[in-house]
Amino acid sequence: xxxxxxxxxxxxxxxxxxxxxxxxxxxxxxxxxxxxxxxxxxxxxxxxxxxxxxxxxxxxxxxxxxxxxxxxxxxxxxxxxxxxxxxxxxxxxxxxxxxxxxxxxxxxxxxxxxx
Length: 115
Hints:
CATH superfamily: Winged helix-like DNA-binding domain superfamily/Winged helix DNA-binding domain
Radius of gyration: 17 Å
Shape: elongated
Number of helices: 4
Helix content: 40-55%
CATH class: Mainly Alpha
């Protein structure tokens, strides 16, 4: 059985933006489940962490929301990416890729490679 890990601080917003970019409009519970599924169930998305991130992204104009009915006919707030959100996603993706490349260098370096 796999042990789930909490999402790293600062990465949940990026995961939310990417999830909405790929899947379109989703309610909070759906976003959390998709992030967990995409991670291969290695990540756990805490509802108490997700909703403040959604609120922050909405206040920044990266996402918009409206009330609708979920798959099981319950009232739910659905979130969608805005044009500003797409631009933010592109910038955050570039930053993350650059950071990952820098970290990767440290894992590749060997003592004999150093002067």
